[in-house]
Amino acid sequence: MHGAFVDGSGWRAVFDTLTNGGYEVLVVQNPTISLSGDVAATERVVAAAKHPVILVGHSYGGMVVTEAGNNPKVQSLVYIAAFAPDSGESVASLAEQPVPAGESAAPLLPPSDGYLLVDPSKFPNAFAADVDVSITGFTAAAQVPWGLEAVQTPNSKVAWKAKPSHFLVTTKDMMIPPTFQRRFAKRADAVTVEIDSSHAVMLSHPKEVAAFIETADK
Questions:
Q1: Contact criterion met (CB below 8 Å) for 160 and 141
Q2: Helices in 35-118 by DSSP H: which ranges?
Q3: pLDDT by residue (tens digit) across 99-146?
Q4: Is 8-214 CATH 3.40.140.100?
Q5: Cα dist from 38 to 30, 53, 156, whole Å
Q6: Residue-range domain boundaries for the chain
């Protein structure tokens, strides 16, 4: 599942690779208005799956994975440059932590009418500096507004405490600091791999992402 400001189309290359490898791959289109709404959207997709589920979330999608991953049909969790909250934590509370020197936080505009957007002029570099600007420039213009309810709602269920977890850390991330990601991965006792990539690793390194997801199917 995708994160904030984008939709599931960013997973196309990973989808193709895994589908060609024989996997049933389902894509969640999160409204990103509320956490409960995104969990419900995920639950519907999990229910439609024909096999045990590896639940994969990028960025804010990690919040949803953590909540929805408690479904008994889910066998393991994969976090891709994602938030992995503990009980009572929200994106807002996690983002309030000090950003380490030399790392960056997302260049968000002030909230407007209950939604957040990334500064379009800074989006291409912050989201995916290693992806062609013809793609990221359009993505910046086509941002999906992120609801403050989704940002501020704390998680109440923590699937990584009961399910095997895998975490791909993006070392050149300018949306979620790599230090934050390493902290999430460590406390989840996740199988962790680091990759020299921007936040949008599924766009810049789709084959590596697909291969990482496959490691959760063991």
A1: no
A2: 35-48, 61-68, 91-95
A3: 999 999 999 999 999 999 999 999 999 999 999 999 999 999 999 999
A4: no
A5: 5, 17, 14
A6: 8-214
